[in-house]
């Protein structure tokens, strides 16, 4: 069994490989399970590139209880839980699009779905044996046949996700993990802006950007409280760092 120091060194080396990846997005999606290319998609942001076939299936949920753990591992598990949620949600959206959805909306939602799956798989690989199990979800409060209901739920999740990463960033001790989180949140912010503009033009920052021009952060406990209506798995976050 590896000691803690060796595990930390291995994780840092793995994350460095992830952060320095330069593979194009289409190559990334052909190797979605390989952590060494995970950040390539994030670096590409939400640019359009349809010449690929990406993963479409969410992981199978089922855990009744999970403990996020402590330290940087706990914080990444917190992020991993959110990415599981978003990947499952957008997969449901793509599988059951609302009546009258136009081609542009569907293509962008597929892009977002693939991004969220990529984020989930990246964090799953970075966490390795320290990752939490698969979560269970309840989307019964979302009417997937109704455009407004889907987009409002998407806006809520994206806004919460961006605020969650902003809240986690000051708590992370590892520079490599912080780099991974920063690359993810930059894409999440693009998602949030697109969803908001789709709902109401020129509304991409309303209510989420303060007078200082910065996005407002949320603490993990506040985030989990807000997404509890979608996640049926009981999540223990009591050991997460707070400062």
Strands of the largest sheet, in order across it? 1-2
Largest sheet: 2 strands, parallel
**Averaged pLDDT:** 80
Per CATH, the architecture is: Up-down Bundle
C-alpha Rg, in Å? 17 Å
- pLDDT < 50 runs, ≥5 residues: 1-54
**Global geometry:** globular
How far from one another are the termini?
A: 31 Å
Strand content: under 5%
Q: What is the count of distinct domains? A: 1
DSSP strand count = 2
What name does the CATH topology carry? Ferritin
Please provide the ordered H/E string of secondary-structure elements. HHHEHHHHHE
Category from helices, strands and their pairing: mainly alpha
CATH classification class: Mainly Alpha
Q: Determine the number of helices (DSSP H or I, runs of at least 4 residues).
A: 8
Classify the helix fraction into a percent range. Answer: 40-55%
**Can you say what the CATH homologous superfamily is?**
Ferritin, core subunit, four-helix bundle
């Amino acid at each position: 069994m590896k000691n803690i120091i060796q595990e930390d060194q291995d994780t840092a080396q793995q994350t460095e490989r992830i952060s320095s990846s330069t593979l194009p997005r289409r190559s990334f999606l052909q190797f979605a399970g390989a952590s060494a290319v995970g950040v390539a998609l994030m670096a590409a942001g939400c640019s359009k590139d349809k010449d690929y076939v990406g993963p479409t299936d969410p992981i199978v949920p089922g855990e009744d209880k999970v403990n996020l753990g402590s330290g940087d591992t706990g914080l990444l598990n917190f992020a991993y839980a959110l990415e599981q949620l978003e990947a499952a949600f957008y997969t449901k959206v793509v599988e059951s699009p609302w009546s009258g959805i136009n081609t542009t909306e569907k293509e962008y939602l597929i892009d977002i779905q693939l991004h969220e799956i990529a984020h989930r798989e990246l964090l799953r690989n970075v966490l390795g044996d320290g990752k939490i199990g698969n979560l269970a979800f309840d989307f019964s409060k979302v009417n997937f046949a109704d455009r407004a209901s889907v987009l409002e739920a998407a806006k809520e999740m994206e806004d919460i996700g961006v605020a969650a990463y902003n809240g986690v960033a000051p708590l992370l001790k590892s520079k490599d993990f912080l780099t991974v989180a920063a690359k993810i949140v930059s894409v999440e912010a693009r998602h949030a802006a697109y969803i908001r503009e789709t709902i109401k033009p020129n509304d991409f920052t309303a209510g989420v950007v303060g007078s200082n021009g910065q996005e407002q952060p949320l603490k993990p406990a506040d985030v989990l409280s807000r997404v509890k209506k979608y996640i049926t798995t009981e999540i223990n976050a009591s050991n997460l760092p707070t400062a």
